[in-house]
Amino acid sequence: MLDELIKVREDGLAAVDAAADRSSLDEVRQSLLGRKGLITELLKSVGKRPAEQRRSFGQDTNQIKKEVTEAIDKKEDELLSTASLFSRPADLTVPGIMPQAGSLHPITQMSYDLNDAFRSLGFEVY
Fold it and tell me: Is the pLDDT of residue 86 over 60?
């Protein structure tokens, strides 16, 4: 029982370390923590264990799940930090963002605001 958990832990952490990109890391996450993952299946089997082994087996399995989850998160952060924000050089010939053309005159804005205020009070504005 304990040997099985140690093997799952070591294999899982080795697979996380071996992941070279985010897609392979997601595959490792699915194979370990997914709906039919190894650790998930171990957690489902806790109820099938003898009563005297359930508590320790569940605690050990949850500890392994926590360690693997932390390792995956750490590896994901590492992959994100090493990834370049710009995978290709910026094209300087592309037109930039044009500024907004303008706005209404302050008196016109005030007129619209007053019309809205009178409409909210129930008056009809023509």
Answer: no
Domain that holds residue 14: 2-82
- pTM for this predicted structure: 0.63
The residue assigned the tokens 């590492």 is 78
Residue 73's closest CA among 37, 35, 19?
19
When divided into structural domains, the chain yields a total of 1
CA angle 98, 100, 107 (to 5 degrees): 165
Other Cβ atoms closer than 10 A to 16: 23
Q: If we measure between CA atoms, which residue out of 16, 2, 101 comes closest to residue 67? A: 16
The pLDDT value recorded for residue 122 is 95
